[in-house]
Amino acid sequence: MVIERNTRKVTKGVKKTNRKNLSDYGWAYLMIAPTILGLIVLNIWPLIQTCYLSFTKTSGFGKNQWVGLDNYIRMFSDSSVMHAVINTLEYTVISVPVGVIISLFIAVLLNSKIKGKTIYRTIYFLPMVSAPAAIAMVWRWLYSSDYGLFNYLLSLVGISGVKWLTDPNIALISVIVVGIWSTIGYNMVILLAGLQEIPKSFYEAADIDGAGPIRQFFAITFPLVSPTMFFVVVTTMISSLQVFDYIFMMIDKTNIAMEKTQSLVYLFYKYSFITNDKGYGSAIVMLLLIIILIITVVQLKLQKKWVHYQ
Amino acid sequence: MKKSIKKFISIIAATVAVSTLVVGCGGTNSTGGGAKGDVTLTYAIWDKNQKPGMEAIAAAFHEKNPNITVNVEVTPWDQYWTKLDAGASSGTLPDVFWMHSSNFLKYANGDALMDITDKLKNSSDVNLDNFPKDLVDLYTAKGKNYAIPKDYDTIALWYNKTMFDAKGIPYPDGTWDWNKLLEVAQKLNDPANGVYGFLSPVDTQQNYYDFIYQNGGEVLSEDKKKSGYDKPETKEAMQFAVDFSQKYKVSPTVQQFADTSRDQYFESGKGAMAFFGSWMVSEFKANEYVAKNCDVAILPFGKKKATMYNGLGNAVSAKTKNPDAAWKFLEFMGTKEANAIQAEKAAAIPAFKGTEQAWIDNNKQFNVKVYPQMLEYAHIFPNSETRSKWDPLETQIFSKMWSGDISVEDGCNQMAKEMNDLLATEQ
Predict the structure, then answer these.
(1) A28-50: pLDDT as tens digits
(2) Could you tell me which chain B residue has the CA closest to the CA of A272?
(3) What letter would DSSP give residue B317?
(4) Is the pTM here over 0.90, yes or no?
(5) Which of A164, B56, B217, B229 is the most buried (most CB within 10 A)?
């Protein structure tokens, strides 16, 4: 008898949620429909098409010819693609840790009681608001070997003519500096939001226990901001692997540093749009997709080791 | 009550969100226009210096055909072909647009251009005999015409009069050969003040192509089946162009050119001489420094006289929504009247024979008559169907040659091989 009553309750409950289902979920689907539609039309469908294109040889306008793995075989024996992979990884490996650590440091400083906090936050966020083309133009002038500001200042202390953008060994570092500078603000704002969620009571308790600021940082701040850090690290890594605009705007086609600076997306642009070889360009971008997927999966797995969820 | 207001607001929000998505996806193509018969055409060009000239032609056309309006759109050269390629693949090309020899075959063979052979035969306003034959042939593919020549350009030697005066050297007068060019460049070279004698960058039409043909070499064989880069005459010419910066140090290096363009060097008085095409005249006219201090002369000759010449063409999209109106505009642009307007506005040297005098008269501050003068020994710009693939290779390989990473011999051989591979894929 007890069992019967229970099942009746359960079936009654199920019926109730069914009626609720339609009106709640219906509205939910309607609200997310525009984004989902946009995602499918602008992201997922082009992804499938690019995957298809990577197996074809494009000629003329839209006349594609299936060639199977030819593009991939060509890609793995192409030294410029291998260099681009190294360049892209180098860019990411340097700009992500340096960028995130600087952003965290600044976010911690701007979270404390100092005067003019809002002004500093605005200043640090400004690069995000400026147009990338304008940023590239100004930095390009700053970096100019003969007429740029940096070399002028260096010449005053006796160091002459550093070829910031035209020396194959330094050009990528110069671009990395611009890349880090322009995204500090964005990461800082997100980390700041994460920091402000940490209850002040933890710090008060630590003060009572006699912990210094550095100890407090590593014992309280870092673990509690690690979910936000994780988000920042993953998204910064993905966008670093996709670097294109600064390289395109600061490194000229005749620049001999190009081979050691061009990224995979730059090569994709070059093959798809300049030489009109969309099949090969698509194969290159599929390679990038696989690299990003592998790195992101690895990061998700490593999550458990360092991210502290409350 | 509150619940229904909330519902109402959320419906509005959702509708707005969906509609902005749809509207945002809409393109900006030429439309049929409001009233019946009113047509708006888009005319795409890449040179902002020529925009006033093109708009004047559009206005003159509009006077004759009040129901057709032409909108001139400028897209800078670097993005013009990317945009046009995308338009051709998706069937949304502008109605009328500039065509360049380097991309013509790709578009003609890709069925992106309207075949105007028959229309030209039946036209009473346009006669192809009025244009240089090489240019008309340039814009023919498989025996059919696809574009009407718009203008032609040649390359000439620009020099800084002030620098010549300061050192008491007589101006170039068309009698110079390569040795004289190098000699004067060395005299005018002034490294202490950052001034270079002759600016020699990795540039095809405005630099090494001219040297190649002056030395009797070639970039592409006449039948377009073989590359000319493995010929000794071509290699000699390339060596000459490279030596300016590497051996004689009278030109900025390729690294310096990547930071500061040749135009910038010349326009700031840091270069004594350089080769520039006739399309640069309007920019130089507007540039205070050049207008005051510089002038132009006939190119020096090598083993023989030669200059590159090329011409733009006006073409109509094969899939335009307004074929008749577009053809009418194209036809108008092939008349003497339109070419005269071009010359007047100093846009470029019009292709119509006999109209170039107006262009010369309108640019009196420079000795521009040398440009049409060189037409008699000018060589047409070499192009083939796969040019868009071997052109970037030229930039890549020759940049290394200019910086000394590879020798001229190796670079030219490598280029010849890559080019021959690509030429073999053409039909």
Answers:
(1) 999 999 999 999 999 999 999 99
(2) B82
(3) B
(4) no
(5) B229
